[in-house]
Design brief:
single chain, about 400 residues, alpha/beta, eight-stranded mixed beta sheet, eight-stranded parallel beta sheet, about 30% helix, about 25% strand, elongated, binds pyridoxal-5'-phosphate
Length: about 400
């Protein structure tokens, strides 16, 4: 018997969905020395802006790697409340953790596709594997008759990034495969742009052309090419569905100067200790910073164990109001030291908070100082921060 996959999927999901778990309960970390504010209104606002920009194409959300470090269970229901119905994660385990926080009707795509031996989990839960190779397609196809139902699938083509996906030749082979659409309900064909953040890069057009060539082999199947960067390229890149990641979370997604990201997070560190030194001293491991004159130093309770990059040793800064407080010495696992400079004595004391990411210093500023990208800064945000939610809605649309 062939059951429509929608019905099977909905049944499978409602069996696992626990609506009460959609309420957001954050672990309380008493005495945490770092805190991460997440502005849920800004997050939903970012989603709406992107969705409006790409309409009539649909805006999906990429919530892999714990929703870019913010917490997938925190961000996904907010995005759903803002209208998102299509979610992308990388691993099956991420899909499993996410599902109970979403409406059974929302789709969950798993970008890494099938790991062999997990076919039954995908099928039971209704997850959509993004099939990246002919072997993955074969395994998924082989599983379908046993279940007596068409299985949902997405196909990814490699159009020039050389990372994951079927080649154009593979796509041709597939398109001619008997039984493909009898057993697979192909809901999306997609590809990923290597240089979407560089708006003038000619590679974007080349990949778009190759994508069109592959997608044409699967007529009528919705198409997806753009990540955040692709959203800011011209409309031709939007196709039917875009996959927004970094732009949702307040990172810079494009080199177009007119596109200003709206920040979603603020990160603060607690001052563990303040000291005034007058004699020359060395600071931190290796004593890589040595004071010269009299200074006031503050030790902050955030280090590389919290994902604050060690590369910011003697380079980066914390901020208090409009004051830049340079990091002196090496960033330790659990702490770092900043120079309080000309801040009036008494202005900051043990127990006070300073900004690591905030109005004066964006995630992209931090990334630049650390020689990396905002994605890495976000996804390293550790579990030791007290996460504090600002604003937001439940999935039912009520204020919290
Ligand atoms: C991570 C990822 C995205 C999102 O990319 P952003 O640049 O964060 O928008 C989209 N598609 C695929 C396949 C990805 O791996």
């Amino acid at each position: 018997m062939i059951v429509s996959h929608k019905a099977a999927q909905a049944a499978a999901r409602s069996a696992h969905a626990r609506p009460e778990s959609r309420a957001q309960q954050l672990p309380d970390l008493p005495g945490a020395s770092g805190r991460l504010f997440i502005d849920l209104d800004a997050l939903r606002g970012n989603y709406r802006k992107l969705a409006d920009r790409v309409a009539p194409a649909i805006c999906g959300a990429v919530v892999k790697s714990e929703g870019y470090g913010l917490g997938a269970a925190i961000v996904a229901p907010q995005l759903e409340a803002a209208g998102c119905r299509d979610f992308f994660v990388t691993h099956l385990s991420e899909a499993l953790a996410l599902q109970e926080h979403l409406d059974p009707a929302s789709r969950i795509f798993v970008l890494n596709g099938l790991v062999f031996g997990t076919e039954h989990i995908f099928a039971e839960r209704g997850f959509i594997p993004v099939l990246n190779s002919l072997v993955q397609v074969e395994k998924w196809l082989a599983h379908a008759p046993a279940r007596g139902a068409r299985l949902p699938a997405a196909l990814q083509f490699d159009t020039g990034m050389t990372r994951l996906g079927l080649s154009i030749d593979d796509a041709r082979t597939l398109a001619e495969l008997p039984g493909l659409t009898r057993w697979l309900d192909i809901q999306l064909v997609l590809s990923h742009l290597a240089c979407a953040d560089v708006s003038g890069d000619p590679t974007n057009q080349q990949q778009a052309a190759r994508f069109a060539e592959a997608a044409r082999l699967f007529p009528g199947v919705p198409r997806s090419l753009a990540n955040s960067g692709g959203i800011f390229l011209d409309k031709g890149f939007h196709h039917d569905l875009v996959r927004a990641g970094i732009a949702l979370y307040g990172g810079v997604a494009t080199d177009m100067p007119e596109v200003e990201p709206t920040p979603v997070i603020r990160l603060q560190a607690r001052i563990l200790q303040v000291r005034s030194v007058s004699e020359p001293v060395g600071v931190g491991y290796g004593l890589t910073h040595r004071t010269t004159g009299p200074v006031r130093l503050a030790t902050l309770g955030v280090g590389y164990g919290d994902g604050w990059p060690r590369a910011l040793s003697n380079r980066g800064a914390a901020w208090s109001g409009g004051h830049r407080l340079p990091i002196v010495g090496r960033v330790s696992m659990d702490s770092m030291t900043v120079d309080l400079g000309d801040l009036p004595p008494g202005r900051l004391a043990e127990g006070d908070w300073v900004d690591l990411i905030g109005p004066a210093q964006s995630i992209d500023d931090v990334a630049r100082d650390a020689g990396t990208i905002s994605y890495e800064i976000l996804t390293q945000l550790g579990a030791r921060y007290q996460r504090v939610l600002i604003g937001g809605q439940t999935a039912q649309g009520e204020r919290q």
